[in-house]
C-alpha cells in the first residue's frame, strides 16, 4: 500500500522541518512548502491526501488557500495551524471546510491522531464515491427520459431490485414504458449477458401462446411440421418478459404457475421435462388484484408474480418530464425524416403539459413524429400542434403524495391556481375563495414577489 502524501505549508522553517521529520517517522510521504503560493502550486500538482496549513503566510493566506484547494480537490482534509491570537480565524476556517485546527506549537501525538482519523474518514468517503460512480456507470438508463420525482422513485427501486433474481410485476397504463423498465432491470442484472426474451401475451390465441411459451414437438398438432423451442427455453440463463400477463387463459395460468414454482415444463406434445434457469418479469395494464377477486386470475399465480410490484406512473403524473421527452423525440424524428427542427416553443410546450395524454408516452411520441414531419418552421409552435391539443380544456390536476403536510398541499393549490389564472392574483384569490391580501401574504411566505397586477383592484378581505 502506498504511503499517504501529506503537504506541510508553513513559513516558519523550524516548525515546517519538525513536522516533516515527525510525519516521515510516522510513515507518511511528506512534501513541504514555505509560503501559500508555493503550497498552492504543489497542492495542484500533487493533489495530496491531506494538508497541514499555517493560517498566516505571505503571498497567499490560509483562507484564500482553503478556497482554491477545495476547488481543486473538494474533500481533502486540511488541518490548520495558528498562533494563540488567531483562534477566531481558525474557527472560521473550519466553517469553510477545514478539518481541525491546532495552536502553535502543535502537540505532535494529538496531531498525528487527528491526521490519521481525517485520512480514514477521507478514504471512506472516496471509496463511497467510487462505489456510487461504479453503480451509476452500471445502472445507466440511457433510454429512460425524465427527471420527475415519480420517475426517480421507480428508478431507485429498479436499482435495488435489478441485481436480484426476484420476480417483478410491472403495472401501469398502456404506453407508460413498462417494457423499457423491464429491459433496464435485465440489462442491470447479473443475467445481462444472457437473453432477454419478450412475449406479448395479448397478441396470441390460447393455443398459439402455449406453443410460443413452451414450444412443441413435431406432429403435436396440425401444422407442427418440426420441433420448436419455446420462449421459456430460449430465455434459459436470462430473463423472460411476459407483457399483458392479465390476458392469458386459465389453462395457461396453471402451466405458468408450475414454471414459476418448479422451473420446469414440457413442450406441447412432448414427454421430456425441461428445467430452466430464468428470471420472470411480467407486465399488465389491468388491476390484477381486482381480476383475482373477480375469479379471472389465479390468486396463487398472482402472488408468485407479485413478489416485487413496480407501478409505472402515467404521463399526467410526471408532466414535468414532457419537455425532456418532447426534445428527445424531436431529435430522433428530425434525424429520421431529415428535418431541421431544433426544439419546441414555450407556448407549445405549455399546451403539451396541459393535455391529458391518455395514451401516455406512446401518444406523445406519435404526436411529435407527426408534428416534426408536417412542421414548416425550425421550432414547433402552437399552430404546429393538432387542434385537439390546442383546444384542450381539461382541468388542471394537483398531485399530492400521501402523507404530504397540509402546508405543502395549500402551497401547491395556491401556486397551481395562480398559474392557471395567468398570474392574476385577484382572479386566483376569487377562484380559491380567499381574500387577495391573504393570497399576497401566502405568496410572501413562499418567497415570491407580490407586486400588484396591472389593472387589479385591491380589497380589504
Oligomer category: single chain
CATH superfamily of the largest domain: P-loop containing nucleotide triphosphate hydrolases
Could you describe the largest sheet, including whether it forms a barrel? 5 strands, parallel
At the first level of CATH, the class of the largest domain is Alpha Beta
Q: Enter the CATH topology name of the largest domain.
A: Rossmann fold
How many domains, as an integer?
A: 4
Strand content: 5-15%
What count of helical segments does DSSP give?
Answer: 19
Please provide the count of β strands: 16
CA distance, first residue to last residue = 73 Å
Mean pLDDT across the residues is 87
Label the overall shape: extended
Short recap of the structure:
With 461 residues, the chain is α/β, with parallel strands linked by helices. The protein has helices spanning 13-25, 36-46, 62-72, 87-95, 108-138, 149-161, 178-187, 206-214, 231-234, 250-262, 288-293, 299-305, 322-336, 346-354, 360-374, 387-390, 406-420, 425-432, 436-445; strands spanning 5-9, 29-33, 50-54, 78-82, 100-103, 168-171, 196-200, 215-216, 228-229, 239-243, 264-266, 273-275, 279-284, 308-311, 343-344, 379-380.
Descriptive report:
The protein is α/β, with parallel strands linked by helices and about 450 residues long. The chain has four domains: about 5-135, Response regulator (Rossmann fold, 3-Layer(aba) Sandwich); about 150-310, Rossmann fold, CATH 3.40.50.300; about 315-390, Helicase, Ruva Protein, domain 3; about 400-460, Arc Repressor Mutant, subunit A. The protein contains 19 helices and 16 strands. The chain has helices spanning about 15-25, 35-45, 60-70, 85-95, 110-140, 150-160, 180-185, 205-215, 230-235, 250-260, 290-295, 300-305, 320-335, 345-355, 360-375, 385-390, 405-420, 425-430, 435-445, and strands spanning about 5-10, 30-35, 50-55, 80, 100-105, 170, 195-200, 215, 230, 240-245, 265, 275, 280-285, 310, 345, 380. Strand 11 and strand 12 form a beta hairpin. Helix 2 (about 35-45) runs parallel beside helix 3, helix 13 (about 320-335) crosses helix 15 (about 360-375) and helix 18 crosses helix 19. The longest helix has about 30 residues, at about 110-140. The radius of gyration is 32 Å and the shape is extended. The termini are far apart. The model is unreliable at about 135-140 and about 455-460 (pLDDT under 50).
Amino acid at each position: 500500500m502506498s504511503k499517504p502524501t501529506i503537504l506541510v505549508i508553513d513559513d516558519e522553517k523550524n516548525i515546517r522541518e519538525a513536522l516533516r521529520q515527525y510525519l516521515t517517522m510516522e510513515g507518511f510521504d511528506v512534501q513541504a512548502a514555505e509560503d501559500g503560493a508555493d503550497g498552492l502550486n504543489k497542492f495542484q500538482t500533487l493533489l495530496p491526501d491531506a494538508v497541514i496549513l499555517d493560517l498566516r503566510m505571505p503571498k497567499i493566506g490560509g483562507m484564500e488557500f482553503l478556497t482554491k484547494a477545495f476547488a481543486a480537490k473538494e474533500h481533502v482534509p486540511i488541518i490548520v495551524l495558528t498562533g494563540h491570537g488567531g483562534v477566531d480565524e481558525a474557527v472560521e476556517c473550519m466553517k469553510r471546510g477545514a478539518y481541525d485546527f491546532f495552536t502553535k506549537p502543535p502537540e505532535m501525538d494529538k496531531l498525528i491522531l487527528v491526521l490519521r482519523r481525517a485520512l480514514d474518514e477521507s478514504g471512506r468517503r472516496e471509496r463511497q464515491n467510487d462505489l456510487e460512480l461504479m453503480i451509476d456507470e452500471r445502472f445507466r438508463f440511457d433510454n429512460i427520459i425524465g427527471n420527475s420525482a415519480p420517475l426517480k422513485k421507480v428508478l431507485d427501486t429498479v436499482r435495488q431490485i435489478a441485481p436480484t433474481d426476484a420476480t417483478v410485476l410491472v403495472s401501469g397504463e398502456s404506453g407508460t414504458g413498462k417494457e423499457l423498465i423491464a429491459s433496464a432491470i435485465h440489462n442491470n442484472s447479473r443475467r445481462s449477458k444472457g437473453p432477454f426474451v419478450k412475449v406479448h401475451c395479448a397478441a396470441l390465441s390460447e393455443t398459439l401462446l402455449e406453443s410460443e411459451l413452451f414450444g412443441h414437438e413435431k406432429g403435436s398438432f396440425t401444422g407442427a411440421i418440426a420441433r420448436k423451442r419455446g420462449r421459456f427455453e430460449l430465455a434459459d440463463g436470462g430473463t423472460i418478459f411476459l407483457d399483458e400477463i392479465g390476458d392469458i387463459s386459465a389453462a395457461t395460468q396453471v402451466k405458468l404457475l408450475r414454471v414459476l414454482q418448479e422451473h420446469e415444463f414440457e413442450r406441447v406434445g412432448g414427454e421430456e421435462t425441461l428445467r430452466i434457469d430464468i428470471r420472470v418479469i411480467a407486465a399488465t395494464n389491468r388491476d390484477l388484484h381486482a381480476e383475482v377477486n373477480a375469479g379471472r386470475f389465479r390468486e396463487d399465480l398472482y402472488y408468485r408474480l407479485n413478489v416485487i410490484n413496480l407501478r409505472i406512473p402515467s404521463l399526467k403524473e410526471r408532466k414535468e418530464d414532457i419537455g425532456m421527452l418532447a426534445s428527445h423525440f424531436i431529435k430522433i424524428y428530425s434525424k429520421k425524416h431529415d428535418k431541421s427542427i431544433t426544439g419546441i416553443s414555450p407556448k407549445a410546450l405549455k399546451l403539451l403539459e396541459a393535455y391529458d395524454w391518455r395514451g401516455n408516452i406512446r401518444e406523445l411520441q406519435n404526436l411529435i413524429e407527426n408534428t416534426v414531419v408536417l412542421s414548416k418552421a425550425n421550432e414547433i409552435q402552437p399552430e404546429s400542434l393538432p387542434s385537439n391539443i390546442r383546444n384542450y380544456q381539461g382541468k388542471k390536476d394537483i398531485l399530492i403524495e400521501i402523507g404530504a403536510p397540509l402546508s405543502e398541499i395549500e402551497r401547491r393549490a395556491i401556486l397551481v391556481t395562480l398559474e392557471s389564472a395567468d398570474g392574476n392574483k385577484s382572479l386566483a384569490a376569487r377562484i380559491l375563495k380567499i381574500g387577495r391580501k391573504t393570497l399576497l401574504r401566502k405568496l410572501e411566505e413562499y418567497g415570491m414577489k407580490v407586486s400588484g397586477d396591472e389593472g387589479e383592484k385591491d380589497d380589504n378581505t
